[in-house]
CN hydrolase domain-containing protein (Brassica campestris), 357 residues
Amino acid sequence: MSTHQQDMSLVTSTPPINNGNQIFPEIEMSGDSSSIVRATVVQACTIFYDTPATLDKAERLLAEAADNGAQLVVVPEAFIGGYPRGSSFELAIGARTAKGRDDFRKYLASAIDVPGPEVERMAEMARKYKVFLVMGVIEREGYTLYCSVLFFDSHGQFLGKHRKLMPTALERCIWGFGDGSTIPVFDTPIGKIGAAICWENRMPSLRTAMYAKGIEIYCAPTADARETWLASMTHIALEGGCFVLSANQFCRRKDYPPPPEYTFSGSEESLTPDSVVCAGGSSIISPLGIVLAGPNYEGEGLISADLDLGDIARAKFDFDVVGHYSRPEVFSLNIKEHPRKAVSFTSKVTKDETVKN
């Protein structure tokens, strides 16, 4: 098994299509195989409470990634709609406040309907820049929010979505829970693509379900900027024999509304406008456990690498977790993929219809 790791370099020259308008430097790795997929992970911050402006920012980032040759672009958890870092929504057990309720009202207004006009715009971005797009969003269904990932192909087709199965800690008071009907792995011309969000990546059963569906490019939008996150991503790459693309936001206090409109609970007094509240750490890892790009803790940026799809077979030779390294006579896993609805309606069948049937 090769342990060779190529050097990363910082692109300082202006790409020919970019016309000198590059937003962020791109960290890249070169490759020369015929089975290469150029992948880019976006590390950037939401424009909080301003979804139209965030979509504009997303388009600028996609344009730059495409100029640098990206075929696949992964955008962080909750990029559209925002990750409410530090906010408590003034929740306490058995108590709510008027401000907390209004904070939720504003957050709900920043979320998007799926399908909806924002989804159509993202589809058009993917088509315009000819990229496969994996986008973290806050999805609104009625008055319930979901932390979701949307998938688009390079022709602008909306492929589907994944809803976060298990929100973490206080997220459970703000977001609903996904079910087994949105754990897709899409078979695309650049590989089989799926996603798990933040700490649900630590759920072995969910990972195993995606391995069983043949995932090759495992996308992991996250809000976890701790250095320990890289170990989890490396383990998943080795365990699944797949590429892992982890995208996180890089945010400073000034990227969120100022107090008292928005308050970082428990830490607001110690923060300055330039204080880093999410340090990123986005990365790309090969099926052999080699860190191809990142982690980047320095600022907003585009993190890119060339994915040699031949590495998947090289890694599976060592370990195929749902194949030759499985023990189905000892262990089994049952995935319930049908949607779980709170209310189901059964149409009344008339006597005439019964006769016809």
